TrEMBL record, chains A, B:
InterPro entries on file: DesT_TetR_C (IPR054129), Homeodomain-like_sf (IPR009057), HTH-type_TetR-like_transc_reg (IPR050109), HTH_TetR (IPR001647), Tet_transcr_reg_TetR-rel_C_sf (IPR036271)
Coiled-coil region list: none
Taxonomy, superkingdom: Bacteria
Name this polypeptide is given: Transcriptional regulator, TetR family
Annotated region of DNA binding: 35-54
Gene3D superfamilies assigned to the protein according to its UniProt record, in alphabetical order: Tetracycline Repressor, domain 2 (1.10.357.10)
UniProt-listed SUPFAM superfamilies: Homeodomain-like, Tetracyclin repressor-like, C-terminal domain
Keywords carried by this UniProt record: DNA-binding, Transcription, Transcription regulation
Organism in which the protein naturally occurs: Actinacidiphila bryophytorum
PANTHER family attached to this UniProt entry: HTH-TYPE TRANSCRIPTIONAL REGULATOR RUTR (PTHR30055), POSSIBLE TRANSCRIPTIONAL REGULATORY PROTEIN (PROBABLY TETR-FAMILY) (PTHR30055:SF158)
MF terms (GO), sorted A to Z: DNA-binding transcription factor activity; transcription cis-regulatory region binding
Amino acid sequence: MAAAGSRRLPRAERERQMLDAAVATFARRGYRAASMDEIAEAAGVSKPLVYLYLNSKDELFSACIRREAAALTAAVRDAVEVGATPERQLWSGLLGFFEHTAAHPDGWAVLYSQARTVGEPFAAEVAVLRSEIVDFVAALLTAACGSRDVAAYAHALVGAAESLAGWAATAPDPAPTGRELAASLMTFAWSGLSQAVTGRVEGPAREESGRAG
Amino acid sequence: MAAAGSRRLPRAERERQMLDAAVATFARRGYRAASMDEIAEAAGVSKPLVYLYLNSKDELFSACIRREAAALTAAVRDAVEVGATPERQLWSGLLGFFEHTAAHPDGWAVLYSQARTVGEPFAAEVAVLRSEIVDFVAALLTAACGSRDVAAYAHALVGAAESLAGWAATAPDPAPTGRELAASLMTFAWSGLSQAVTGRVEGPAREESGRAG
C-alpha cells in the first residue's frame, strides 16, 4: 500500500522526502554514523531507490549541503529590507538568519557541525557558502559606510552570527529564540557599526591603532 | 655531527623541536597529507625517535593541539589588564588574542583549520579549548555588566574573533596586523558592549524584542 501510494509521487517530491530524511539523520547521528538504511527507512522508501536517486552517501550528503546552504542564503537575502536604513537592514538580515536557523535546526547542524568537521570535499562546499554570505554582508556594509574596514566587519559579523546560532543549538533549556538571538547580536554589533558609519573610532582603538605596531 | 650534537639536547628541548616541526608541517600540508617522515626531517631527527617520543601521528597531532591551545589561552589571560576598566580589559584581551594568532600562524591553523575539520577526537579537543575561552570572556563580561545576555555576547565576541583571525590567515596582501584586527573588532564590538553596561538597548532590538515572537 505504501509502495503503491508512494509510486504516484513525482520525482521532485520523492527526492525532497529523501533529502528531508537525510538531513534529519545526518544532523542527529552524524555523517559517519548515519547509514543509507536509516535514511531510506526515515524517508519511507527502499534503499535501492535512494541509491537510484542520489547515487552514494557522499553525493547525498553533498545534495543536503547544497540544499540547506541555498535555503539559508535565500532566507537572509529575502529578509533584508532593501532600501531601508542600514540599521533596519542589519536588523532584518539578522532576524532572517536566526529565525531560519532556529526553524531548521537539522539543516543548520548539517552545515555548521557536520559538513565543516567531516573534512573535504564537504568543508570546501560550506566555505563557498560562507564566503558568499560574507560578500553579501560586505556589500551591504559598503553601501552603508564605505569604510576600509568593511571586510573586517563583515567577517566579524558573520563569525558572531555563526557562533551564536551554534551555541543556541546546544544551549540550556529554554534555548533562546531566533528573535532573541537577533536582538542580542543587534545590541552587540549595531552601535559599533553606527560609529563606523559616521567615521568615528572608539577610544582605545583610536589611541592604539595610531601607535607603531 | 648533527646526530652527535643533537644527542646532547635534554628530552624537553628535543620534544619541543619535534612539536615545532609537527605544527609547521600539519599547518602547511594538512593533517592527512603530513607524514611522519616529513616531520622527522623538519625536526632534524630520525623517524623512530619521533615515534619513541610521541607514539603515533594521532598522538603527535593531539600534543600539537594541546600545546597550541594552552599557549593561546595563556596569551589571552596574560594580556587582559586585571582591574582596568571594562573597555581597557576588552582592548587588552583582543590585542593579546590577535597578536598571538598573527605571531603564531601555524599554531592557529592547527587549531582553527586543521583540528576542527579533521573530525573526532580532535574537534572535541578544540571544542573544550573554545568553551574555556567563552567562559573566561563571559566571566569578564559578567563582572563588567552583569547582563542576562552575557552568554550571548561572549559567544558573539569569540565567534567574531575566530572569524577575523581565520580571515587574516588567508587575507590578500598585505594581511592585516594583529593590532589592526584588534582595533577593527574593538570598534565593531565596544560601543555595543558599552550600551549593555549602562543597560541601554538599541532602537530596533528594543522595539522588536518587545513584540510577541
